[in-house]
Amino acid sequence: MIEKNKPLQSILDAINKRSAIHYQIPNVGKFIFNKIVPYIFIYRVPESGKRDKMLVDLAKTENASMVYKSSDFPLEEWIRPIAQKLAADFGACLLIEVWTAEDGQRDDIEIHVAQKDLLPLAEYLEKNIRMETLEISVGIEKDQHIPHPPETNELFSKKELQNKQILLLGLSIKRNYMDENENILPILMRIYRESLAKSLSRLFFEFLRVYTHLNATAQRINVHQELTPMMVEIDQALAQETKKFDFLLMVTPLNSHEAWLQFKKDKYWKAPKFLYRPMHVDPDLVKRRLYNLRIEDIYDPTMAYIFRDKRAELDSMITMLSDRGKEDFLHGSLQVFGNVSEKLYNSALALLMMTEPEETAKKSDDIISANDFAKMAREEIRYLQKQNAEFNSPVRVREDISGVMVNRGALNISQEYKLTRGRAMALIQHEIGTHVVTYFNGRQQPLNLFSLGVPGYEELQEGLAVLSEYIVNGLNNDRLRIIAARVIAVHHMLLGNTFTDTFDLLVDQYQFLPETAFNLTMRVYRGGGLTKDALYLKGIIELLTYLQEGHEVELLMMGKIRKDYLPIIKDLLQRGVLIPPALIPRYMSEEYKPRWREVIQKGSIFKLVE
Question: What keywords appear on the UniProt entry (predicted)?
């Protein structure tokens, strides 16, 4: 019998002091509290002594866990005082015990419940596992006795748990991640581990909210989640690779203005020849470094998912750059930025039908130069610096770009760029208020990825940037037509049409001025075919739906994120990994609250038409 009084007392003292504790039970297992939480994950290794690697790895993702393998160890004598202490301190304690399913189990995962008060949590867990993956079937079993693995004792009797402060939920899991020879199937094992870890994390916060006198916010304040050295190392490595090339600069022509003049001289019938910056990175070396990163060794499923997602995106982007000017570039673009759905295409067509073509001329005194626009942008930067003195954004007028572009927090303006003064304020909120502010807010986070951009961030980012134009009364019909025409141009390109075919379509069918049509077509055909421009309309439509569902817009300013990352962002906020936005742009100030209410009330891109 293992002497237990002193170590058990040490654990109870650690709970009292809210200090982390790891206790190794010699030749048996270990008890771990990375944080003092009212939740313990328990895995009793079967009598055979064969550990289930997935369940052991799953335990490593939890804040508090108990893994042991000896029937000589009196677990119930330890777990009862510990659970009672946690329940007394937090108002309740949740125990999750897992085991390998017996033959004949119907679903891949069964959630075992014997306490009626635990049923809502069981249903919440079931819903989250289903949401995480369609590859795993899950069901709920209402047991007569307190759940426990076969050939083991109950940790508590049903009578002992009648006070409802201690809740015990069981999980029996089929070993589908092993073949008939008990060899591990690594991809399936990862799917099980990460799906369960994410679902259990959400279950824990729901338990805190409903069953304890704490909530997720209080938990975040009291207990700070620290990133492991490996997470920091991988984040820095991914950031380093990201900074070695600027994708948009590399696929944007150096000679767009000269190409336009030549195209006009050729009477619009000869496709222009675009020149690009030289490739200064070796794709093979970048990919080798990316896949040398040991992301599979990160047990936190959220962080592993983010890093793996970013690595895959960088892999695709570097492949696109090596295929620049070739047919395969377009295939890569479809993988990174997506296609044009029929619904999006029809929305774009409807917008063009609802709006009048742009005017053939504008008053000369309403046009401002690139340098004038740069001055206005610097004034906006000074406004934002009042919120945070560390904020800054270089504003550069350049000869080697087309239009306006934000590059890692710097605003770049083409020397040839001109716009109306009425559009300038809207464009400043688009570029500075959205792209630059989210870059700065992302830099305040402990992970570089939130400033450089999580994979697929462009859709939400561009949607928010376009909506900011509407909030400051700068999203006119001409601008809406351009955003819609980008979708039409991408769709037309994907059908196999040439540069001149798409240019003619925009001029003849949709009455765009030749120079406007050229810029639209150039953006879509650059590099060999870039589908990114369809994301502006798609993004604002998705964002309007998001707002109508009652979600908070301030959360979108955390950094460069995408919509389906929002549950991850909330999870990391609750755990204290991320911090709230450091800067709030002008268009989210009190002055514009009525406009936000108006947007939510309208709820449709078509109702934004003047």
Answer: Hydrolase, Metalloprotease, Protease
| 119 and 38 share one domain | yes
- pLDDT computed for residue 122 by the predictor: 94
Of 207, 222, 237, which closes a domain? 222
Residue 144: beta bridge partners? none
Quote the CA–CA distance of 307 and 298 in Å, as a whole number.
10
Average pLDDT over the chain reads 89
CB neighbour list of residue 498: distance below 8 Å, 6 or more residues apart = 271
Structure tokens at 138: 């899950």
> Which residue, 489, 440, 486, is CA-closest to 463?
486
Give long-range contacts, CB 8 A cutoff, 24+ apart: 501-506: 503/268, 504/268
Q: Of 487, 463, 454, give the one whose Cα is nearest residue 336.
A: 454
Both tokens of 411, joined, read 């605003």
> Is residue 44 domain-resident?
yes
Secondary structure of residue 338 in the 3-state scheme: coil
Indicate whether 58 belongs to any domain. yes
Higher pLDDT, 159 or 584: 584
Q: Given a cut of 90, is residue 221 above it in pLDDT?
A: no
**Which are the contacts of 357, defined by CB distance < 8 A and separation ≥ 6?**
481, 510, 511, 512
Query: Integer distance in angstroms from the first to the last C-alpha of the chain?
Result: 80
Q: How far apart are CA 522 and CA 328, in angstroms?
A: 18
Residue 250 and residue 215 in one domain: no
Is residue 134's pLDDT more than 90?
no
Distance of CA 65 to the CA centre of its chain: 28
Range of the domain at 533: 246-280+323-608
Query: What is the distance of C-alpha 226 from the center of its chain?
Result: 19
| Beta strand ranges found along 325-366 (DSSP E) | none
The 8-class DSSP code of residue 172 comes to: E
Min mean pLDDT across 110-119, 200-209, 497-506 is at 200-209
Tokens of 36: 């003092």
Structure tokens at 478: 């001409």
pLDDT at 70: 63
Cα distance between residue 387 and residue 37, in whole Å: 36
Q: What does the DSSP assignment read for 361-388?
A: ---GGGEE-HHHHHHHHHHHHHHHHTT-
pLDDT (0 to 100) of residue 594: 95
252 lies in the same domain as 212: no
Q: How confident is the model at residue 7 (pLDDT cuts 50, 70, 90)?
A: confident
Residue type at position 42:
I
Q: Using alpha carbons only, give the angle 204, 206, 210 rounded to the nearest 5 degrees.
A: 120
Q: Is residue 30 part of a domain?
A: yes
Q: 34: domain CATH number?
A: 3.40.630
pLDDT at 8: 85
Residue 109, strand partner residues: 138, 173
In the numeric block, the tokens 């940790």 are attached to 155
Residues in the chain: 610
Nearest by Cα to 227 from 579, 541, 576, 547: 576
